[in-house]
Amino acid sequence: MAKASGAAADQAAPAKKNRLKLIVIVAVALLLAIGLSAAGTWFFLGKNRPVQEETAVQPAAAPRLPALYEDLMPPFVVNFHADGRTRYMQVSLALMARNPEQLAMLKVHMPALRNQLVMLFSSQDFAELNTPLGLDMLKQKVTATVQALAMREVGAPVVEQVLFTNFVMQ
């Protein structure tokens, strides 16, 4: 029996040595990974950036002009036939632009613009306009219509956004 326990002790010693080697290798690999990670982070965060990149002059952006608002008065009133009843919609709009000269040039074409908007409003479905999505879609259509007319007549989109200042349906 003494020989049996001596053989087991001989096998346990190499197993402990193999386990110790494995722990040392894993620890060295872990330290190496941490070191490489720190070095890579330090390198990519710009500690070694050339001086010319830091002193490069960025082109100055054109200053943004303040917003100008043009109310379209009187409000638009259109009627619908929905579910066998006559329905009405009243919409007050404001145009938001940034260039006063282009806005003044667009004002000359206000009758054509009002005509296109009346035609657009009267072609809408009453049920769709009762939803938030339908109202948002109408706003996008109105903006696109105004910008298309401005491109055709003025040569620039002029209007950045169309705002509904009053919207009533009954």
From TrEMBL:
Subcellular location(s) of the protein: Cell inner membrane; Cell membrane
Membrane-traversing stretches: 22-45
Cell inner membrane is among the record's keywords: yes
UniProt key word Kinase: no
Keyword tags: Cell inner membrane, Cell membrane, Cell projection, Chemotaxis, Cilium, Flagellar rotation, Flagellum, Membrane, Transmembrane, Transmembrane helix
InterPro entries assigned to the protein according to its UniProt record, in alphabetical order: FliL
Membrane topology term: Single-pass membrane protein
Chief location category: membrane
One Gene Ontology cellular component: plasma membrane
Domain of life: Bacteria
Protein function: Controls the rotational direction of flagella during chemotaxis.
Family label: Belongs to the FliL family.
Record protein name field: Flagellar protein FliL
Organism of derivation: Thiopseudomonas denitrificans
UniProt lineage: Bacteria, Pseudomonadati, Pseudomonadota, Gammaproteobacteria, Pseudomonadales
